């Protein structure tokens, strides 16, 4: 259906009023004035048309001024949302434009409500996970201390052993708290990066040397390619080392016996793409979208046996995003996993 502009509609309405007034004059003119009927009808048409135009213009100015104000107000409210639809197509009809803005605003509100619902679910999961992760070492410490207080302190066969175990549980709690603090600081921007130009090849060699013994204990071969030349990138060397260590440690922990973990990098234009890959057990497809969430574990029992906090990949993601770069994961069960991220060339 064709839409008319309000100006054309104004002319149509004024014309209809003028025609009706002219018809009324034509009917009402007495026979004695038949000679002047044409002049009266024409004059009535012109006068009523002009009068109608003036009245409708006045009303139009007032109404559409208010509509424009309402349009601006709705648009401003809409643009205050987190992810508004910034580019909307406007036409010449102000009412249609207002309708477009209201519908877009309603759609933004709907999306925001859905996002808040997801955040609420995530918040509840996060609080439950924090409680569970901290409860385990706290209960362990409590058990060791109660045993010592009940007489174990005087028993040389267990006193030192239980104190060592309690210390390990304390260390686990400290690790969890430190990791949570690091994520919080990265999210809020409190943790400032210290970017510098550094040799990526040398850093990877350092990480491989540091993790080689752990890999050998599990019979995993840890190697790097591209080790014959220096490649310089720009970033926070300490934090990028933290990223590489996290990825390599995860690969070794969850890799298969006598498997292999490789670190390699490629030229990707303005960036260098770094990959940490293995031929381990792999990750099921349904877990991949949530892999970088705090405390998310693919295999909860196995992860806790390995001693992880469940925060390593969340920290990795935040560090890479703080560098304005991206990290991705590809995995196939029974085949292996590849983590890849980018760094800016120096």
3D architecture notes:
This protein has helices at residues 6-28, 37-79, 94-149, 159-188, 200-217, 237-253, 300-305, 312-322, and strands at 196-199, 221-224, 232-235, 260-268, 271-278, 327-332, 336-345. It has 346 residues and is α+β, with helices and mostly antiparallel strands. It has three domains: 6-109, no CATH class; 119-188, Orthogonal Bundle (Helix Hairpins); 196-345, Heat Shock Protein 90 (2-Layer Sandwich), CATH 3.30.565.10. The longest helix is centred in the middle third of the chain and has 56 residues, at 94-149. The model has no long low-confidence stretch (mean pLDDT 80).
List the SSEs and their pairings.
Blueprint: H1 6-28, H2 37-79, H3 94-149, H4 159-188, E1 196-199, H5 200-217, E2 221-224, E3 232-235, H6 237-253, E4 260-268, E5 271-278, H7 300-305, H8 312-322, E6 327-332, E7 336-345
Parallel strand pairs: 2-4
Antiparallel strand pairs: 1-3, 3-7, 4-5, 5-7, 6-7
């Amino acid at each position: 259906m064709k839409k008319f502009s309000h100006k054309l509609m104004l002319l149509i309405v004024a014309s209809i009023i003028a025609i009706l007034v002219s018809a009324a004059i034509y009917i009402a003119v007495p026979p004695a004035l038949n000679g002047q009927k044409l002049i009266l009808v024409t004059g009535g048409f012109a006068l009523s048309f002009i009068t109608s135009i003036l009245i409708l213009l006045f009303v139009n100015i007032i109404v559409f001024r208010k509509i424009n104000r309402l349009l601006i107000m709705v648009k401003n409210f809409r643009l205050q949302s987190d992810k508004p639809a910034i580019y909307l197509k406007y036409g010449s009809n102000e009412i249609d434009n207002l309708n477009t803005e209201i519908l877009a605003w309603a759609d933004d509100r709907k999306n925001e409500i859905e996002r808040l619902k997801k955040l609420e679910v995530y918040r509840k999961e996060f609080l439950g996970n924090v409680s569970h992760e901290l409860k385990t070492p706290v209960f362990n410490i409590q058990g060791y201390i109660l045993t010592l207080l009940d007489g174990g302190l005087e028993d040389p066969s267990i006193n030192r052993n239980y104190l060592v175990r309690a210390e390990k549980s304390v260390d686990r709690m400290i690790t969890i708290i430190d990791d949570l603090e690091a994520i919080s600081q990265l999210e809020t921007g409190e943790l400032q990066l210290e970017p510098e130009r550094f040799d990526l090849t040398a850093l990877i060699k350092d990480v491989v040397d540091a993790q080689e013994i752990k890999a050998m204990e599990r019979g995993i071969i840890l190697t790097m390619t591209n080790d014959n030349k220096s490649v310089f990138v720009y970033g926070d060397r300490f934090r990028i080392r933290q990223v590489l260590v996290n990825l390599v440690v995860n690969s070794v922990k969850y890799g298969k016996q006598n498997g292999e973990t490789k670190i390699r990098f490629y030229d990707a234009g303005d960036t260098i793409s770094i990959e940490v890959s293995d031929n381990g057990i792999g990750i099921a497809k349904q877990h991949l979208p949530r892999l970088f969430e705090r405390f998310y574990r693919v295999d909860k029992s196995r992860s806790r046996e390995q001693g992880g906090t469940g925060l390593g990949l969340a920290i990795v993601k935040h560090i890479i995003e703080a560098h304005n770069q991206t990290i991705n994961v590809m995995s196939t069960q029974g085949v292996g996993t590849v983590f890849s991220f980018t760094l800016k060339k120096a």
